[in-house]
Every structure is written in structure tokens, then in C-alpha cells.
Amino acid sequence: xxxxxxxxxxxxxxxxxxxxxxxxxxxxxxxxxxxxxxxxxxxxxxxxxxxxxxxxxxxxxxxxxxxxxxxxxxxx
Length: 76
Known about the structure:
The chain contains 4 helices and 3 strands, in the order H-E-H-H-E-E-H. By secondary structure, the protein is an alpha+beta fold. A hairpin with a 2-residue loop joins strand 2 (about 55) and strand 3 (about 60-65). The two termini are about 20 Å apart.
């Protein structure tokens, strides 16, 4: 799924983009990879129900990329 520039929305990420992610990504990037909206992603993270491992660092959430890739079936 790719960016639809005309509508101004983004759904998911391609395999190449996913495999190029750093060790941990911000919650917005994790949401994008999973096709989750911003509000839903933050709601799940706050409740401890995000579908993969999330680290809380101060006020920020970071998604562990290895868990994200495993969830998506792209683990090495």
C-alpha cells in the first residue's frame, strides 16, 4: 500500500521500507506500518495493548522494530 498524494493519506508501508527501519521507531511510524490511525495507536499503547513491544521513554513511545517485523511476518 502506498501514499495517495491526491487524498493526502498514507496506508501501511512497503516491504523495502519496513526492512530499512532502525532498531526502534516512533509510534507514528509503527502505526503507519500497521495501518493504524494516530488516535487508535496511542490508545493501544497507553493501555498496554499495542500489537507489538512498545517502550515508554519519558513522554515518548518507541516501537521495537524486530517485534514489528515479526508481527508482519518479515523477521529475518
